[in-house]
Design a protein that fits this description.
123 residues; mainly alpha; elongated
């Protein structure tokens, strides 16, 4: 998962959450591209997919530790806020790598995992 700018990052998020591009009654040429993109953001798809992801990972202590540390950046202890933080531009590529590794072998994703350690250090 690589991106080098905000436009690429936004597309990766859309792809990850399987957001549908839907037509708007807006003239794209009248709006700044980021504003137009924000109007097309499907928050329901994001929330539904984050809920599924949380249910899938909430019993893994490594993910819980990441969620706790990420939530603390916003003075929170809410693990789901921490999950949301990990979708931010600065963390998403590493978080995606962690999720991929977890999908391949859930029991191997622990605090000793290199990707976990890299994301933990970045937080």
């Amino acid at each position: 998962m690589q991106y080098t700018n905000n436009t690429e990052y936004r597309q990766k998020i859309r792809d990850f959450f399987k957001m549908e591009q839907f037509p708007q009654n807006l003239d794209k040429n009248e709006l700044e591209s980021e504003t137009y993109d924000e109007l097309l953001y499907d928050s329901l798809a994001a929330q539904q997919n984050m809920n599924i992801l949380y249910e899938k990972t909430k019993n893994n202590s490594a993910f819980c530790t990441l969620y706790e540390k990420a939530a603390a950046l916003f003075f929170s202890t809410d693990l789901q806020i921490g999950l949301s933080v990990l979708f931010c531009y600065d963390y998403f590529s590493l978080f995606y790598a962690c999720l991929t590794e977890f999908d391949e072998n859930p029991s191997a994703f622990t605090e000793e995992n290199e990707l976990y350690m890299a994301l933990y250090a970045k937080l």
